[in-house]
Design brief:
Order of helices and strands: HHHHHHHEHEEHEEHEE
Shape: rod-shaped
Number of helices: 10
Catalytic activity: ATP + protein L-histidine = ADP + protein N-phospho-L-histidine
Distance between the termini: 51 Å
EC number: 2.7.13.3
CATH topology of the largest domain: Four Helix Bundle (Hemerythrin (Met), subunit A)
CATH architecture of the largest domain: Up-down Bundle
Strand content: 5-15%
Number of domains: 2
Radius of gyration: 58 Å
Pfam families: CHASE3, HAMP, HATPase_c, HisKA
Subcellular location: Membrane
Helix content: 55-70%
Enzyme class: transferase
Structural class: alpha+beta
């Protein structure tokens, strides 16, 4: 299976689990909100039942006080409590759900309340009011009072009404406790489910991450190791191509690339060896006829020197110069071809001593003064390539200097990981248009007849530095001189 599919499936599983957790928590939040609304409604119901029962007592005491004393103060208390009970019953009727058991109990309470008010309270109040107008009315009130109150029916009705409201209130309290218990259990269950799903999601996520890390990272590290081996020169290395996923395809591509590289590098090495042998053979075969020509010229000069005219002698000197240039050119080609083929030899190099050796071998003229920095670095490096670079740069600075008081300055600057060396002269300078051309092999800015130049020296310098991934830079002003600077690793 492709890694992209595995990652997608893994994240999909985690997403589903977290979605389930979110959905359960959302549903639990709805239940909590619903329960909160229930408790708010239940609190109102309990508060109204308590007020209703208190008003019943106030109505009974107000009714009896008015019947005994006839004072309007008691009847006002009765009317106030009665009106409030009407409002309470009306509000309870809207609050209590139609499907609730309480709804039926509320209807019975309303019927009992209406029966007590209409059959007992109102007739007694009206009779009491009339009893104050005549003796017959007073006698009628006394009869009604004994019939309605002293018989005990009114008291039993009143007690039944209060008991029903008490039962109504107790039922509400029990319902509150039940809902509270259910809510608590639901919250606990939701917490457990959420913790379980979250834990499972985390475990699955870790398992998927570990699996992918093992499946991807381990195989990628094998390919990184393979790439490092290729970079180190081992082109026969291969890695195991497991599976048909993207990394498996990459591993197979790397194996194919390594095989192609191995073939090409082997071919390149063989061609380089053939080229080196060719350069050596050609240089040897070309030097032989040049030496032969030089010998013939010397023999002629030795045997017929007095017979030669001045013009012929001049021609012979020109021939010798061309022979020297040809031999130098062949040697330069051979040196250029050998760069990068020798095994590097690291040794402790004192540049102050090395510079003395170079200056002894370079053909310095009396008109050129060379100023060398006194404290050049001492460090472990390749001596021969560095010597070749300085020899070519200093030799060119001497050879092409056109000033009567020629000056060459050699100095160095230190950086954290490399040195920068400078060869500065006050010669003719080099136009910017030729700054790249002079580093190409066989390229020279002077006429070949005026200087025995091969055009190989700066090409050798450039190739040595390129082979070591270093750089060379030219800063020059025509007529004022040039500064060649190059970097060399510590």
């Amino acid at each position: 299976m492709k890694i992209s599919y595995l990652i997608f499936i893994g994240f999909l599983v985690i997403l589903i689990m977290f979605s389930a957790t979110t959905y359960i928590n959302f549903k639990q939040a709805e239940r909590v909100n619903e329960n909160s609304e229930f408790f708010a409604r239940s609190t109102t119901i309990v508060r109204h039942t308590n007020r209703f029962q208190r008003n019943i007592l106030n109505m009974v005491s107000g009714l009896r006080g008015y019947l005994f004393t006839g004072e309007n103060y008691f009847i006002q208390a009765y009317d106030s409590a009665a009106q409030e009970n009407i409002d309470i019953l009306a509000e309870l009727d809207t609050i209590v759900p139609d499907t609730s058991v309480q709804k039926r109990a509320l209807r019975q309470i309303r019927q009992l309340n209406d029966e007590w008010v209409n059959n007992y309270a109102i007739p007694l109040i009206e009779a009491k009011k009339m009893s104050l107008t005549s003796d017959s009315s007073k006698h009628a009130f006394d009869e009604l009072y004994r019939e309605r109150l002293l018989s005990g029916v009114e008291m039993r009705l009143n007690r039944r009404l209060q008991q029903m409201f008490k039962d109504f209130s107790n039922y509400e309290y029990n319902l509150r406790d039940l809902r509270k218990s259910e809510l608590t259990e639901s919250i606990i269950l939701t917490k457990r489910i959420s913790i379980y799903l979250t834990s499972v999601s985390i475990i699955c996520g870790l398992a998927i991450a570990i699996f992918l890390a093992y499946r991807i990272s381990n195989r990628i590290m094998k390919m990184v190791k393979m790439a490092d081996n290729i970079a180190a020169g081992d082109y026969n290395v291969h890695t195991t191509a497991e599976g048909n996923d993207e990394i498996g395809s990459l591993a197979r591509s790397l194996n194919h690339m390594a095989s192609v590289l191995s073939e090409n590098i082997s071919l390149l090495k063989r061609k380089n060896e053939e080229l080196g042998q060719f350069a050596h053979i050609v240089s040897h075969d070309l030097k032989a006829p040049l030496r032969g020509i030089d010998n013939v010229v010397n023999w002629i000069e030795e045997d017929h020197l007095d017979e030669l005219s001045p013009k012929v002698k001049e021609y012979f000197q020109l021939i010798k110069g061309r022979l020297v240039r040809g031999e130098n050119l062949i040697q330069g080609i051979l040196t250029y071809a050998r760069i990068g083929r020798e095994q590097p030899v690291i040794e402790l190099v004192d540049l102050n001593e090395l510079m003395g050796e170079i200056l002894e071998n370079v053909a310095a003229t009396s008109t050129v003064a060379i100023d060398v920095q006194k404290d050049l670095p001492v460090f472990e490096t390749e001596k021969i390539p560095l010597q070749q670079i300085f020899s070519n740069l200093i030799g060119n600075a001497i050879k092409y200097n056109d000033k009567r008081n020629g000056k060459i300055k050699i100095y160095a600057r230190k950086s954290p990981s490399y040195y920068t060396f400078f060869v500065e002269d006050n010669g003719p300078g080099i136009d910017k248009a030729y700054h790249d051309k002079i580093f190409m092999i066989f390229q020279t800015l002077q006429e070949r007849d005026s200087f025995e130049s091969t055009g190989v020296g700066l090409a050798i310098v450039k190739k040595i530095l390129d082979d070591r991934r270093q750089s060379i830079k030219l800063t020059s002003t025509v007529g004022k001189g040039s500064v060649f600077s190059f970097t060399w690793p510590k």
